[in-house]
Amino acid sequence: MSGQDYEAPSGAFTQRDEIAAGSGTMIYRCGDCAVRVPLEKGAPIRCQKCGARVLYKERTRRMVQFEAR
């Protein structure tokens, strides 16, 4: 794919996404209680509400599209 064919994603970030991306904090979902858990780099992987250690990374809200060959 050449640089001329590239089209920038048009999905808009929300203010929450900009804050999380700028501060190095990622948002995860707890596997047991489904609460949103913000984690910084190096922080222990544990839910703050129930103490579970299974966290799932949230999917992006932007549309992700791949070009098939």
UniProtKB/TrEMBL annotation:
GO molecular function: DNA binding; DNA-directed RNA polymerase activity; zinc ion binding
Keywords, in A-Z order: Metal-binding, Nucleus, Zinc
Electron transport among keywords: no
Main location: nucleus
GO CC annotation, single: RNA polymerase II, core complex
InterPro entries attached to this UniProt entry: RNAP_P/RPABC4, RPABC4, RPABC4/Spt4
GO biological process, one term: DNA-templated transcription
Pfam assignment, any one: Zn_ribbon_RPAB4
Annotated compartments: Nucleus
Annotated family: Belongs to the archaeal Rpo12/eukaryotic RPC10 RNA polymerase subunit family.
Protein name, entry field: Uncharacterized protein
The organism of origin for this protein: Cercophora samala
